[in-house]
Specification:
CATH architecture of the largest domain: 2-Layer Sandwich
Largest sheet: 7 strands, antiparallel
CATH class of the largest domain: Alpha Beta
Number of strands: 26
Number of domains: 5
Structural class: alpha+beta
CATH topology of the largest domain: D-amino Acid Aminotransferase, Chain A, domain 1
Length: 674
């Protein structure tokens, strides 16, 4: 097995240290430096590395732990039932992998029964363990480190949904979640602000803080609630399934969330998960996912546990609105009015259900405020249909290799000398040359046009939208767009996004002549591009061509040769071509013998409108068959193809006696009947 790269080892070490510090804050001190979703993202990255390099897994890894240590000012309670954590899934593929693992493990055990699943909503609150002795509440404890928790019995007794006496005098241990409703949080925050205090961030933090109050009166005033979902120990026989277990808990007097569902297949599980992801905000409690459990207890017992989690259950998280990722670069985007917007190019990451690779940094002041650097691990937030924002730098992840962004004095995209200026009274900078953006737009329009890359569904309106929203800064950026980037754009439906991405992907293979045309080299038109492609065949030869070499090519004069040499000598153009070559493949002109090309030696001039194909397509077909296309009529012209509304070129052909073909005759020439 290959040794993990040095950068992977460094990343792993940083992740373990940072996650442990943040987990301690979150579970023990009840503080949140970053959101739970962002912390989940860091943990998921850690698990991915350890999955890829299992030899790196250690017993002290956060992936092998359940939670933090209990607070010292609470009595410690040793759990009679180990408090397990759950493995997480984030995608359909991961859900299906869980189903496959369950079935494979059962087959290996010689069990042929097909498992079914019970799906329950994953309430975002504080886990509590309730012990009842002969029907009466004895103790209530927090999860703690999974073995030892905190005794919070007096506070939990104040929660009216927790029965002090069960309907049946049994001795059991039940587990559930303490939570505060959104409406209750609003009421509590109004009181806090009236007293001049800071409002609470979210219901989960208030729930945890309330349960950990030494004064039970404070907990009582917070009007907390519970949902109980697990009967983990009983002096009587346990129910035969998870579905029956939930019914039993309700019969005993516990408050059980009624939105659970028995699913007979993994497809039903996925459907339930997707339905509740859409409905998650409709409930008064916070939801962060769905818990899936093998329904049959006998199968649960057969599956057992790993070192930290049951094999028979998994938590499927909803798409996070906050995740962590890495800033790979920061580039300036010139907007419609010439205003410069810094855009962070990110390691692609899924946020709020879509993959994004760019985030706006707004302006110079925002970069300084965040102190964001290239190489930083950052918290990315996406709320609604807007371009994602970087809201925080996880400074604990810094290695010292990160590079601060230096605001430039000149920007090549601003044209001429590239000078920029800060707008008086604003944090924004803009191009001094007010015409630069219009010029840039025209180049993009040309790049995606039929003569160049011919990218369908990426016309001028979409180019404007991509530029205005900072998703593209040069031609190569078009090919690195992610589906999630495009879905953030206004009025951009999924079907439109899929069409656009399909067209972009199709354009990754481009004829050499079209590639040359796309670059907008001054003086180089369609015919010259074809001459250059046929002569050099490969891009490196063209890039290295001298003035004299270019000048010697038929159809390339002094002015054109000078323009080509100067264009490729420009460092920015050099970088642009290199970036494009990372994204696209150039197809060299086919070399065929003269006898195999039916139009070899013939020169065509196209005029007017053809009904069955446009002039660009007609030119492509002519060249593919060995012919040449010219823009002007001369005695050397073999045919003039005249469509509807043919103009002066038709008159010139008649004057010189050049053969004229209508559309039908032209098509017969292209596709002769055999």
């Amino acid at each position: 097995m290959p040794r993990p790269p040095k950068e992977v080892l460094e990343r792993l070490t940083k992740l373990k240290k940072t996650i442990e510090e943040l987990r301690y804050e979150y579970h023990v001190l009840n503080k949140s430096s970053i959101s739970p979703e962002a912390l989940d993202s860091l943990k998921h990255e850690l698990v991915e590395i350890e999955t890829k390099y299992p030899e790196l897994v250690t017993s002290d890894s956060p992936s092998q732990r359940v939670a933090g240590e209990p607070l010292k000012n609470f009595e410690k309670v040793k759990h009679k039932v180990t408090q397990w954590s759950l493995n997480d899934a984030f995608t359909e593929e991961e859900i299906k992998n869980f189903d496959e693992r369950v079935k494979r493990f059962l087959r290996d055990k010689g069990i042929s029964e097909t498992p079914t699943y019970t799906c329950e909503l994953k309430i975002d609150g504080l886990h509590v363990v309730l012990e009842y002795e002969k029907g009466f509440l004895k103790t209530a404890a927090t999860r703690g480190d999974g073995t030892v928790g905190e005794n919070v019995t007096m506070n939990v007794r104040t929660i009216e949904s927790v029965p002090l006496k069960l309907s049946k005098l049994v001795s059991i241990i039940a587990e559930g979640e303490v939570w505060m409703g959104k409406r209750q949080l609003e009421a509590l925050n109004r009181e806090e602000m009236e007293k001049g205090r800071e409002p609470y961030a979210n219901p989960r933090n208030v729930s945890a803080g309330s349960i950990r109050q030494l004064d039970p009166k404070i907990a009582a005033s917070r009007k907390l609630d519970t949902y109980v979902y697990d009967l983990s120990l009983s002096n009587e026989e346990l129910p035969i399934s998870q579905e029956e277990e939930l019914k039993t808990l309700r019969e005993l007097g516990f408050k059980v969330n009624s939105n659970f569902k028995h699913c007979k297949s993994v497809d039903e599980v996925i459907k339930y998960w997707k339905e509740w992801e859409k409905k998650r905000d409709s409930e008064d409690y916070l939801l962060d996912g769905v818990v899936v459990k093998v329904n049959d207890r006998k199968l649960q017992d057969a599956l057992g546990y790993t070192g930290k989690a049951p094999r028979w259950a998994i938590a499927i998280k909803f798409a996070a609105e906050q995740v962590t990722t890495v800033v790979e670069n920061i580039a300036l985007q010139v907007g419609r009015t010439g205003v410069l917007t810094p855009v962070a190019h990110l390691r692609p990451v899924s946020v709020a259900g879509s993959t994004v690779s760019r985030a706006t940094l707004h302006n110079e002041d925002e970069i300084k405020r965040l102190d964001v650097r290239v190489g930083d691990t950052v918290v990315l937030q996406k709320a609604g249909d807007v371009i994602p924002d970087i809201v925080k730098v996880v400074t604990e992840m810094r290695t010292g290799k990160e590079k601060a962004y230096k605001w430039p004095t000149h920007v090549p995209e601003c044209g001429d000398d590239g000078k920029i200026e800060r707008i008086p009274g604003q944090a924004a900078w803009r191009c001094v040359n007010k015409n630069s953006f219009a010029q840039q737009k025209r180049k993009f329009y040309h790049f995606v046009s039929k003569k160049a890359f011919d990218i369908e569904h990426v016309g001028p309106k979409n180019i404007d939208m991509l530029l205005d929203n900072g998703l593209i800064a040069d031609f190569a950026d078009i090919f690195s767009l992610e589906r999630g980037d495009l879905l953030t754009l206004p009025r951009m439906a999924e079907r439109s996004v899929d069409n656009m991405l399909s067209s972009i992907d199709k354009a990754r293979k481009v004829q050499f002549a079209r590639f040359i045309i796309s670059l907008s080299i001054p003086q180089v038109g369609e015919e010259t591009a074809n001459d250059l492609a046929n002569h050099f065949e490969k891009l490196p030869k063209l890039r290295e061509a001298t003035f004299e070499k270019l000048q010697s090519i038929y159809g390339v004069g002094d002015v054109v040769a000078k323009s080509i040499v100067e264009w490729f000598a420009d460092k920015n153009n050099h970088k642009l071509v290199d970036r494009l070559l990372e994204q696209v493949k150039i197809i060299s002109p086919e070399k065929k013998s003269a006898g195999s090309l039916p139009l070899a030696g013939l020169t065509f001039v196209l005029t007017g409108t053809l009904s069955s194909l446009d002039r660009d397509e007609a030119g492509t077909k002519i060249r593919a068959l060995g012919g040449d296309v010219s823009s002007s009529v001369s005695k050397k012209t073999s045919y003039v193809v005249a469509g509807e509304s043919a103009g002066s070129k038709l008159d010139r052909a008649v004057e010189l006696g050049v053969k004229v073909l209508n559309e039908e005759g032209f098509l017969k020439l292209l596709h002769p009947v055999k």
